[in-house]
Write a structure and sequence with these properties.
globular, alpha/beta, transferase, binds the ligand NCC(=O)COP(=O)(O)O, pyridoxine biosynthesis, 8-stranded parallel β-barrel, binds 1-deoxy-D-xylulose-5-phosphate, Pyridoxine-5'_phos_synth, EC 2.6.99.2
Length: about 250
Amino acid sequence: MPAKLSVNLNAIAMLRNRRDLPWPDVAHLGRIALGAGASGLTVHPRPDQRHIRFSDLPVLRALIDDEFPEAEFNIEGYPTEEFLALCEATEPEQVTLVPDDPNQATSDHGWDFARHRSFLTEVVSRLKAKGMRVSLFADGDGNAEAVQQARATGADRIELYTGPYGGCYDNPEKAAEEIDLLGRTADAALAVGLAVNAGHDLTVANLPALIKRIPKLAEVSIGHGLTADALEFGMAETVRRFRHACGQKI
Ligand SMILES: CC(=O)[C@@H](O)[C@H](O)COP(=O)(O)O
Ligand SMILES: NCC(=O)COP(=O)(O)O
């Protein structure tokens, strides 16, 4: 089965938050993404709500429930009590636990599973008891032992952190090395019964090689690169609409 695409709305929310105005409309862009065949929506609400606001969550939950009942909601974040309460109130189909510091600009590493195993086991069991699938953000470093520790927490999946691979956009040799490490991590995870997601800095250019190496990839969540493409490929039509609004003949 091909990898599912979950569209991450963080970048759109960040743009909205530049002004005290309701556009770009995060839920409506989520609707367009799901209408175009995305399998789900991802958000990563951070404690300072600099992009996704906590108040976006019930709106997106209702969008999926009312208009796209086959789609999945994926909420990512560090499992503080506040985050866990948000998940319990929103009941996403999947929660992705990420070891982010509150002040971090973006996610840049996976869990140290040996160190945080008992904490993660507790959190995973709490979320799974409420019917949520749990995925753990993991470094794609080929460490099979770490993957076994991830499995021991009771999680259903890992999400491979693909940032280092995404950063190799201008270095094909380094990209091939990263693909090898990601692939070995995925093999180890699949061997112990964990399904594998992937995300961070994925693009139309770098996805095919990743999918080729990990054909059983269950899901990719993509925000930054996808939003950049949406702007690029939507720019010409948008300028035509604004020229029309200026009274120009098109
Ligand atoms: C978990 C992860 O990989 C991140 O990509 C995240 O979901 C995006 O976070 P920001 O949009 O805050 O950079
Ligand atoms: N889990 C990764 C994600 O949701 C999106 O990351 P990015 O494409 O914004 O880097």
